[in-house]
Amino acid sequence: MRVWRPQAFLAFLSVARAQPAPYPNNSYPIVNATNPGGLDNAISPPFYPSPWIDGSGGWDDAYQRAKQFVSQLTLLEKVNLTTGTGWMSDACVGNVGSIPRLGFPGLCLQDSPLGIRFADYVSAFPAGGTIAASWDRGEFYRRGYQIGAEMREKGIDVMLGPVVGPLGRNPKGGRNWEGFSPDPVLSGIAVAQSVKGIQDAGVIACTKHYIANEQEHFRSPGNFEDQGFVDALSSNIDDKTMHELYLWPFADAVRAGTGAIMCSYNKINNSQGCQNSYIQNYLLKGELGFQGFILSDWDAQHSGVASTLAGLDMTMPGDTDFNSGLSFWGPNLTLSIINGTVPQWRLDDAAVRIMAAYYYTNRDKAAVPVNFNSWSTDTYGYEHMHGQAGYTLINEHVDVRQEHGMSIRLAAARSTVLLKNTGVLPLTGFEKFTAVFGDDATENPLGPNGCPDHGCDNGTLGMGWGSGTAWFPYLVTPLEAIKNEVLRNNRVVQSVTNNWAYSQITALAKQATVSIVFVNADSGEGYITVDGNAGDRRNLTFWQDGDELIRTVTASSNNTIVVIHSVGPVVIEEYKNNPNVTAIVWAGLPGEQSGNSIADVLYGRINPGGKTPFTWGKQASDFGPDLIYDPTNGALSPQDNFNEGVFIDYRYFDKNNATPTYEFGFGLSYTTFEYSDLKISKSSAGPYTPTTGQTIAAPTLGNHSTDPAQYQWPANFTYVRNYIYPYLNSTDLAEASKDPQYGVEVELPEGSTDGSPQPRIAAGGAPGGNPQLWDVLFTATATVTNTGKIAGEEIPQLYLSLGGPSDPKVVLRNFDRLSIQPGQSATFTADITRRDVSNWDPATQNWVISNYPKTVYVGGSSRNLPLSASLDLGGY
Ligand SMILES: *[C@@H]1O[C@H](CO)[C@@H](O)[C@H](O)[C@H]1NC(C)=O
Ligand SMILES: *[C@@H]1O[C@H](CO)[C@@H](O)[C@H](O)[C@H]1NC(C)=O
Ligand SMILES: *[C@@H]1O[C@H](CO)[C@@H](O)[C@H](O)[C@H]1NC(C)=O
Ligand SMILES: *[C@@H]1O[C@H](CO)[C@@H](O)[C@H](O)[C@H]1NC(C)=O
Ligand SMILES: *[C@@H]1O[C@H](CO)[C@@H](O)[C@H](O)[C@H]1NC(C)=O
Ligand SMILES: *[C@@H]1O[C@H](CO)[C@@H](O)[C@H](O)[C@H]1NC(C)=O
Ligand SMILES: *[C@@H]1O[C@H](CO)[C@@H](O)[C@H](O)[C@H]1NC(C)=O
Ligand SMILES: *[C@@H]1O[C@H](CO)[C@@H](O)[C@H](O)[C@H]1NC(C)=O
Ligand SMILES: *[C@@H]1O[C@H](CO)[C@@H](O)[C@H](O)[C@H]1NC(C)=O
Ligand SMILES: *[C@@H]1O[C@H](CO)[C@@H](O)[C@H](O)[C@H]1NC(C)=O
């Protein structure tokens, strides 16, 4: 019997419960609507061994090259590839060790999903949740490609993005804006196009955070404000909801070839994300056939052996706690291999996965040396900032922006959503007296990058806060851009940007012929608290007394345009109904060209075509279960039961007959569109066959000595303080481990070291899952006519009713963005795949087409679906 450390497996599982025995025939006890979970059922069944890469789905060439590379490596070199060098030890936010013998410089991992964090001369792109409003595959791809190209030129190997977790279960979730949309199909298409763009630029995309990381409060164990120690929150999700909602966009990312996936801080069904064998081994590497590598969120690794066997491939930033100088891997990984606890094939697989992603994205051809340093803007400084070692040239200040500012301006304008317009828009620029109101119209007095990680809400809101941010090269403010418009025509424009100067606001509003009010709502990552919001929003109203600002202006101005910069929905029913509010525009988090983008829309150079990628509810409670803000379980894991299942956002509103202010998919144009002539054609794809057979055996690449003397520090090695190396400090293994529990005998999870061929998973078979899930079963076409007087862009949307009693009323399945001249028509064409018409069946662990009647709907929003047709599923 192999041994392992119980501490490792149970580390931070303060709900000290042993993992249950494997269940026969996949009969997992799951949390679901009839069995709503709580502590007893919210368990994550063990799944071992960790599946090894097989090169399927276009990865074979990369796989063969990776195997060849890793075959040359020593054990210490393999450990170097998998282990981060420690927080602030090297130039990037994450770095793995080098392989000097082969001239391999290590890997640089860098934030963020919307541009490069901690670097100068970079672009600040629209946030994920904003570009989602473009519903445009081309914009998703171009944004990904351009961010990727900037990363490549700074020397970054792995971009820490895109985001589809959080998905956006509740709009208060602090990091929702980093991802795309609470709809899994819109998110899935956006993430796939983003991954392709990033990786075509020659950089590895790291899709994150896997999975159910739906709130900031309690995401990690620790002391939380004044609430004392609280263990990490457990997101308890049933199998059907997992597949039909949260896992869905990850499947698209894997199918698109994402080279990396980041496991999340939170627990899933009471097992830590980064050592959860069910979600990593079974779902991701097994069922979804993921070929790349799993890396931990920063300090989300909580064990050595247990996380290794549960499928983790890279630890970030490498140390147990920031700057502890200790690691669950590094020397401990070396030890766990030479003492026989972890089979060598598992380490080989981790190394091959990392290098396969490297070759898959052509990093060998695209790489340039890292030419910036995250921890300083100085030209010269310490290469190893934390250890204060290696004083040298650290910032070459390479301007990597190219002409991306022009794309950013256009992308943000095309992502702007016109929610209300009584006819005042577009403005002409000849308005006699334009008044601009709001702190959100102007620049942060502290500078566009004046608050660390954008952790404040001063001036116009161009992005949220936290690690998912980039430094602005400049920030064009709305006030600057509007002044330019108006002054061109020699008209009058004035502003009040102090939100509390009520008498001046009233005085100006009375004079104005048009008033434009800028308001915002911010959120971010939980390590920064802004105005009492610890990442997650406390409410869904405006910040900086924005509501009072709007009320003050509208009391004196019958032509008030409200422009919203926000991370998600805000409660605006009052303004929808106020006749003095003549227009409402949502501009999201537009990035560096904010003012130009909004001016393009307000003054009609761009006819707005964006559609809201989330629902605007009349009140916060309309969105369903709230976030957990207070510990529910003492110091133990707060239990967050996702009892609403697949019913989030519009699906929840539909189910509860709640009328939203503006529904998912809604957005106006300066022209109008009509829908007609829905036709469905059926393909000859035939029935679905589950994947069968067995995998190959796990390859072991080379061998290793078990002699501790081979793994000691090289003679005369100059080491950096607190830096994580692979070497052992002693030939006494227990001493080298520095772990009082070293060598304590415990049973390893059953099957965890077994490298023999394994049964293939029925719903699997290739990256993304069983390839037949993407068979096109039907193609729908419909005619969209521009019935107005100017050219415009419309986003026809295809929804399905899957017909069952536990299915949402409708679910989005496809869309396109069409540019149509006035009086002209265009044809909307949308495929419907097997996955689109299927439900997840927990009993057979596969996708099935239910016998309920299925209906296709086409129209301009989730509640404006004039066309419908039924689907004939015979033969599938
Ligand atoms: C819900 O979970 C219980 C307990 O695991 C199981 O018996 C039941 O079949 C599940 N129901 C559905 C709809 O999956
Ligand atoms: C591991 O990486 C470190 C840091 O880059 C490097 O100094 C060391 O030589 C590497 N060790 C091996 C065995 O390649
Ligand atoms: C090895 O890991 C244990 C925790 O599992 C940790 O306490 C110890 O400090 C680590 N050792 C080294 C040398 O990093
Ligand atoms: C092997 O090494 C790992 C990592 O240090 C340690 O946790 C484990 O207890 C060791 N097992 C044995 C049998 O020595
Ligand atoms: C920045 O905004 C905060 C609220 O988020 C406010 O308290 C502070 O006074 C503002 N500072 C400046 C310089 O505008
Ligand atoms: C909602 O939160 C914002 C930001 O903290 C705050 O400015 C506002 O006053 C809050 N709204 C209400 C109604 O409490
Ligand atoms: C609308 O604006 C006018 C001033 O133009 C004002 O007299 C009226 O009270 C306002 N109405 C509302 C509902 O605020
Ligand atoms: C606002 O009020 C003025 C003065 O009564 C009127 O001329 C104008 O048409 C009104 N504007 C709107 C948009 O209702
Ligand atoms: C290590 O450094 C010492 C002192 O400079 C030198 O005498 C010795 O030869 C070196 N050893 C090796 C293996 O390079
Ligand atoms: C290992 O030895 C080096 C060099 O003496 C020392 O700096 C480091 O702190 C030691 N590491 C551990 C984990 O004991």
From TrEMBL:
| E.C. number | 3.2.1.21
Q: Where is the Fibronectin type III-like domain?
A: 794-862
Could you give a single Gene Ontology term from the biological process aspect?
A: glucan catabolic process
- Signal peptide as annotated in the record: 1-18
Broad class of enzyme this protein falls into? hydrolase
Keywords recorded for this protein, A-Z = Carbohydrate metabolism, Glycoprotein, Glycosidase, Hydrolase, Polysaccharide degradation, Signal
Molecular-function GO terms, alphabetical: beta-glucosidase activity
Q: In which pathway does it act?
A: Glycan metabolism; cellulose degradation
Which InterPro entries does this chain map to? Cellulose_deg_GH3, Fn3-like, GH, Glyco_hydro_3_C, Glyco_hydro_3_C_sf, Glyco_hydro_3_N, Glyco_hydro_3_N_sf, Ig-like_fold
What SMART domains does the entry give?
A: Fn3_like
State the reactions this protein catalyses.
Answer: Hydrolysis of terminal, non-reducing beta-D-glucosyl residues with release of beta-D-glucose
Q: What's this protein's family per the entry?
A: Belongs to the glycosyl hydrolase 3 family.
The molecule here is called beta-glucosidase
